[in-house]
Amino acid sequence: MTRKIIIDTDPGQDDALAILLAFASPELDVLGITAVAGNVPLALTELNARKICELAGRADSKVFAGADRPLMRLLVTAEHVHGKTGLDGPDLPEPSMPLQKQHAVDFIIETLRREEAGSVTLCALGPLTNIAQVLIRAPELVPRIREIVLMGGGFFEGGNITPTAEFNIYVDPHAAQLVMQSGAPVTILPLDVTHKVLTTARRLDRFRAMGTKSGDASVALLEFFERFDEEKYGSDGGPLHDPNVIAYLLRPELYGGRLCNVTIETSNELTLGMTVADWWGVTHRPKNAFYIRDVDDEAFFDLLIERIGRLP
Ligand code: BDR
Ligand code: CA
After folding, report:
1. What is the Å distance from ligand 2's center to 288 Cα?
2. Which among 227, 179, 168 is positioned nearest to 199, based on CA atoms?
3. Which of 65, 96, 136, 233 lies 20 to 30 A from 109 at CA?
């Protein structure tokens, strides 16, 4: 049976790879892609989402625009990482598929109501504003959510936008805290795991060898994306974050983590957006999230490359 997913995203080169992986995987049924403001403003993230659908040969899929700013704070963007368009690197054509008229939050609510209870997984690759708005407007839908699997946070590795905060959580910490407190099953793929997944030169060569449009675009996306982190960390390749969400759905046995309490700092300025993971269980706070720290990175790239190699 295929697993029904909604991808909530702010593309973003690594978001793009995650979307390609999902479309290339017959185990997943992508019901819709919901765009949120994050790496770049909403007008660009929804446009980029449509470009990626068309790259994957999936102009028949549905892209919805959602929140254009966080719940309570001003939008912080990351053009210094992703470039002015959010998707710098490849030269992708303007999409011809339309943006859906329905608001992303309405789409998610309607889908959770329509589909069988416990059958829809929400995959969050950006700030959690859209998901939080669903929880605020329709809290009765929480038991109908199969799982929220998100890329965000970092505890042992520290932060990437401030010393203590990861970008997706920092942009909308209030939304992230609502998700943590929602009671829905939450799985977190933080920097602690994504920093083990590096886009090395040898791995990029394997994308290049595909000789397809999607393979070439992946190389251009990743070469642009990794330059910032390679300089920062001095590594061969940069961390590849968002595709871990999709890979986790496809092959959970590649990952290791534990159920623990995760709480988001929403008030202290110095540590705003910090994901405080009680890995050692030193508090009695409820265990609300499956927090992942380990991955078989070779097997992750084997999966990613084999799947993207199936696309046009
Ligand atoms: C996360 O922030 C964004 O810049 C990436 O797309 C990823 O979702 C990594 O911190
Ligand atoms: Ca993202």
Report:
1. 22
2. 227
3. 96
What value does the mean pLDDT take over residues 192-209? 97
The minimum-distance atom of ligand 1 relative to the CA of 82 is 4
Supply 171's token pair: 């942009």
Bridge partners, 88 (sequence order):
none
Mind listing the pLDDT tens digit for each residue in 9-55?
999 999 999 999 999 999 999 999 999 999 999 999 999 999 999 99
- Tokens (6 digits) for 53: 């659908």
* Closest ligand 1 atom to 160 CA: 10
CA separation for the pair 211, 158 (Å, rounded):
38
What are 295's strand-pairing partners?
A: 255
Cβ of 229 closer than 6 Å to ligand 1, yes or no, is no
Q: What is the pLDDT of residue 231?
A: 86
Return the pLDDT at 27. 98
Cβ–ligand 1 contact at 8 (below 6 Å): no
Record the tokens describing residue 291, joined without a space. Answer: 């927090």
With CA atoms as reference, report the closest residue to 310 among 205, 218, 174: 218
pLDDT at 71: 98
Handedness of CA 277, 282, 283, 286 (dihedral sign): positive
3-308, what's its fold?
Inosine-uridine Nucleoside N-ribohydrolase; Chain A (3.90.245)
Name the residue ranges covered by the structural domains of the chain: 3-308
Please list the active-site residues: 241
